[in-house]
């Protein structure tokens, strides 16, 4: 069992940056690929980014490439999401998720690919 806890959310002005962290408890992230998703009010949960455990390959939603960066710190047992040049439309609850399964790249964008989810952290971008 993996418990995931997100942190780092908050209120930021448009153009600003935030760094979200996902920490695992109960076990290490070793062997788990981790993804970030977000859900805005009234919208479906959407894929943001993922990092594969084996090899550290990263995947991004096309619309977010260049602004968001996912990374992993094995020593701290965390996965981070650096978000730059934030826009009001980035406002959402951000969730991290983990899976022990090995998928092809596009499958990491599916919510059903993940076994464990955090409770989410709110990100609000003001205009």
Structure description:
Helix content is 0%, strand content 48%. The chain is mainly β and 127 residues long. The radius of gyration is 13 Å and the shape is globular.
Offer a few descriptive terms.
mainly beta, single chain, 0% helix, 4-stranded antiparallel β-sheet, 7-stranded mixed β-sheet, 127 residues
SS content category: mainly beta
Strand content: over 45%
The total strand number stands at 11
Distance between the termini: 40 Å
Element string (H = helix, E = strand): EEEEEEEEEEE
Task: List unreliable stretches of 5+ residues.
Answer: none
**Helicity range:** under 10%
Number of helices: 0
Q: What is Rg? A: 13 Å
Shape: globular
Mean pLDDT reading: 94
Main β-sheet description: 7 strands, mixed
Question: What is this structure, in a nutshell?
Answer:
The protein has 127 residues and is mainly beta. Helices cover 0% and strands 48% of the residues.
List the helices and strands and how they pair.
Blueprint: E1 3-7, E2 10-13, E3 18-25, E4 33-39, E5 46-51, E6 58-60, E7 68-73, E8 78-83, E9 92-99, E10 116-117, E11 121-126
Parallel strand pairs: 2-11
Antiparallel strand pairs: 1-3, 3-8, 4-5, 4-9, 5-6, 7-8, 9-10, 9-11
């Amino acid at each position: 069992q993996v418990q995931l806890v997100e942190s780092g959310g908050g209120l930021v002005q448009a153009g600003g940056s935030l760094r979200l962290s996902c920490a695992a408890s109960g076990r290490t992230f070793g062997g788990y690929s981790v993804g970030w998703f977000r859900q805005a009010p009234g919208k479906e949960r959407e894929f943001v980014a993922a990092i594969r455990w084996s090899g550290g390959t990263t995947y991004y939603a096309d619309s977010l490439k260049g602004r968001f960066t996912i990374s992993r710190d094995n020593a701290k047992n965390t996965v981070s999401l650096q978000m730059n040049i934030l826009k009001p439309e980035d406002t959402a609850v951000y969730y991290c998720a983990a899976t022990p399964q090995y998928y092809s790249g596009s499958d990491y964008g599916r919510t059903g690919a993940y076994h464990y989810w955090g409770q989410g952290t709110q990100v609000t971008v003001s205009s």
